[in-house]
Amino acid sequence: MKLFSSLTLFAAEEGGFKPPSIMEFYPEIVAFEGTPFAINRIMMIRLIVLAVLLVLFYLWTRSFKKAVRSGNVVPGRFQLLGEMALNFVRKTIAYEQLGEKDGERFLPLLTTIFFMVLGMNITGVIPFANIAASSVVGLPMVLAAVAYVTFIYAGMRKHGLRFFSNALFPAGVPKPFYVMVTPIEFLSTFILRPVTMALRLLMNMVAGHLLLVLCFSATHFFFFQADGFFKLFGAGTLLFGFAFTVFEILVSVLQAYVFTLLTTVYIQLALADEH
């Protein structure tokens, strides 16, 4: 505790160390300032990721079509990467939860969500981007809204208005208990599901970014501004920075998987005959 207090006091006296703050997620406008189409650094990263994903899927699609036309059964590395990525979503998420018929039906949406979330998350560890495009609430809210509308659509398409009665009045519950159960089901199904999906993604990306900025800012401070033995702490914060970078990559993939899996589970529950 004394050592930590000494470090804090030293940093404060030097005035060189700037810890991360919430303003990291509100960068300056870089284009179209003063208009509804104002673009900051995070929005620009989102547009770049979207463009990269469109090009990537175009190249994968062209590669698949070329292989079919030529009858080539041995895929190249690029085609193999695409097949592995798409099959991961198809078999591990869609087919596993929805079965083959419904899995194929919702596969385009689930694939889009998975790669969108992954692409937007992974920018947090890409040089010159250095922040996850999903670390501001707008994108997680849009993705959660898409999942929300989709599972309601799926339920109404199969059951009609009975979908809502199935969701709000679960089978097997004694009727007097509906006074307590129905408000809870309404809150958990139609309110908390999209809110928790958005907040889970947002908070993980925000926390990861703040940890990375803290580690590398401290490293810069210790190496270039601190004096004496305090410079030694830079090696520790640098190692922590690299460790958190690897961890952030894993979290980016995991959050893409979890978000897509939850969307699939909610669709499956909406399609079920009884909830």
Give short descriptive properties of this protein.
single chain, 275 residues, two-stranded antiparallel ribbon, disordered N terminus
**How far from one another are the termini?**
53 Å
Secondary structure tally, helices: 7
The fraction of residues assigned to DSSP E strands is under 5%
What do the pLDDT scores average to?
A: 89
Task: Tell me the count of domains.
Answer: 1
Largest sheet, strands/sense/barrel: 2 strands, antiparallel
Please give the oligomerization state of what you see: single chain
Question: What is the helix/strand order?
Answer: HEEHHHHHH
Label the structural class.
mainly alpha
Helical residue percent band: over 70%
**Radius of gyration over C-alpha positions, nearest whole angstrom:** 24 Å
Order the strands across the largest sheet as they lie in space.
Answer: 1-2
What best-fitting shape do the alpha-carbon axes yield? Answer: globular
| Strand elements, count | 2
- Uncertain runs: 1-10
Short description:
By secondary structure, the chain is mostly helical. 74% of the residues lie in helices and 2% in strands.
Structure in words:
The protein has helices at residues 2-14, 41-70, 77-122, 138-159, 162-168, 178-224, 233-271, and strands spanning 29-31, 39-40. The longest helix has 47 residues, at 178-224. Helix 4 (138-159) runs parallel beside helix 7. It has seven helices and two strands, in the order H-E-E-H-H-H-H-H-H. It has a two-stranded antiparallel sheet. It has one domain (12-271). With 275 residues, the protein is mainly alpha-helical. Mean pLDDT is 89; it is low at 1-10.
